[in-house]
Amino acid sequence: MIWGALCTTIISLAxxxxxxxxxxxxxxxxxxxxxxxxxxxxxxxxxxxxxLTKYTLASIxxxxxxGDLFFESGMASExxxxxxxxxxxxxxxxxxxxxxxxxxxxxxxxxxxxTAAAVGSSxxxxxxxxRYNRYAVLGSLAGxxxxxxxxxxxxxxxxxxxxxxxxxxxxxxxxxxxxxLFGLAFMAYIAxxxxxxxxxxxxxxxxxxxxxxxxxxLNIWPLLILMTSILGPLYxxxxxxxESASFGAMFLLVLGFTVGELTVCRLISVLxxxxxxxxxxxxxVMGAIILKQAVGILGLPRMAVDTxxxxxxxxxxxxxxIIVFYLAVGCLFDGISILLLTSPFVAPLLISCGYDPIWxxxxxxxxxxxxxxxxxxxxxxxxxxxxxxxKVSVGEIAIATIPYWLIxxxxxxxxxxxxxxxxxxxxxxM
Length: 430
Hints:
Family: Belongs to the TRAP transporter large permease family.
Strand content: under 5%
Protein name: TRAP transporter large permease protein
GO cellular component, one term: plasma membrane
Function: Part of the tripartite ATP-independent periplasmic (TRAP) transport system.
Order of helices and strands: HHHHHHHHHHHHHHHHHHHHHH
Keywords: Cell inner membrane, Cell membrane, Membrane, Transmembrane, Transmembrane helix, Transport
């Protein structure tokens, strides 16, 4: 009866055109009604007040602000130009710059779509003017853009940690090695592609001397200081995520007005855009909090475990089923929505099967990364199609991202066989 009410409420609200936050919250209230009757509203209000007054959500606001300031101050474009000479002599050339800058931008923004948009808006026109293959350019941007969701600070990991009461600092540490390995794997694929296929990169380009390359690299000092100021105090327990992100935002404000391109008008636009994004996330989080409370009290995760283990007691089969489930829903929803919708069910289920909560958070993040480049929704695909002025269709970009999709999927197998890739660093430092 409970599962019937759950499915009926979700489907009914979705058909009615309700937003995701309303779907999650409405479903949670219906389930709470089965438990406490008229007291469901009071219970929901109490849990909302408790969770929303935590500092965790404030850190999301500040990390969104850091990403927006980094882009609007012109530092994203400057970082791209500074790193370009470093990869000129490597097979794949500036396509590697796309991956490197996406990784660095992800280390200050924490989002995937914003990473793809910020780096893509600078890289795509530049590389097309240099006669790079447009499909290789867009594929590298879409694939590498997903790393913004995994490499800390990650909004996805913050939300997972807040919902499941898991250490955010440990989650950040758990995302470092997988993020770096994915970036290196993307670069290896780009090098192989450029060596085996004609026309991926131009045959002739301006060459930089070693001295010129070093002078260019010196221009990324603001980014390096920003990354150190945000992540250093956090990892060594000197600051909370909110304090680290706030310091990063203050640093960018000063730098943006003094050596960057930030103006008062741009700052106002940044603040407006940041609040709109944050408001949308908070509304969905509120619904997820109510649903999580209802799911926990009603024991739905335990019921799901009992049902699945009665079919197959092997935890591996449970994991495979969940991976297939995420690959399917990734075609229909954006990553953050999937995370908030499924974590209250999936995380307790996997924990009961013996998987580590830190490892689960990284796994879910990688799975929703795959969804970011999976049509028909695939937000990164639409963002880059827009940057390309619709000269390249979403379907064509999706085809170009298939190798990156497969690399991410192979990465899931890798961290499953070798979970210490995720867990070693958190266990050593914290």
